[in-house]
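Final report, closing paragraph on structural work. Over the funding period we assembled a curated collection of sequence-structure pairs, and we close with a single example.
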Amino acid sequence: MRKTLVFETLVRPALAKAAAVQVTSAAEADDLRILIPLIDPRIVPLGVGPLVMNRPRKRNGLLTAGYLGRILPIKNLETLLRAWAAAADSWWQLTLAGPGEPRYIQSLRLLARSLGLGDRVTFAPAVPHADLGRFLEGLDLFIHPSKSESFALGVGEALSAGVPVITTTLDPWSRVTDHGCGWTAQPTHAGIEAAIRIATAHGREQLESMGHRGVAWINSEFGWPAIANRYVNDLYAPAPEPHG
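Its predicted structure, as stored:
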């Protein structure tokens, strides 16, 4: 009720009067048009800055997939755990990192144990931004199984770190397939399991090659120089004069 009151009395009037309203993805634009039908949002994605990478990627040992973000039901992590148990081979391990309600995290731990994953799944706390590069450089694959996202910055950061990704059809990163740096799956057990089977069948060198393509894409399209130009041209440029 408080959110509705604030939106109707403060947010909606401010957005309706704005000369330009920024959204970060087409899905976010669609949602905003439903809330405020006469608005014409401009899509300018978030910039993905360079990360501090401290050491070369590991060359041997177990391969590691990871998720980084809030530990919430909407992130679909129960489905990820079940799909991981069904699809991933024993030389792969999985790390889930991020903040969450302790009881919910405990329920995921119990689920992992009941699935027989044992030491193959690790739960880690939130990663400070200063340590983000160190966390991502320890991954061979990033998995983002969420049921709903506006932008999913973590996917962009993983690609920026040279890590190929599995995303879902409900976040705005489906172009990973076009750029050869990841896979897109339906956010269902069957969809995520199939993507995990394909991704984990790749060797370390294949995954590294995909990661290099991801870095090139992020730097060219989502690096701050490109995004700053879009801010200037798409948000702050004067509106064209009406004809006639």
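The chain has a mean pLDDT of 92. The CA atoms of residues 84 and 193 lie 7 Å apart. We thank the funder for supporting this effort.
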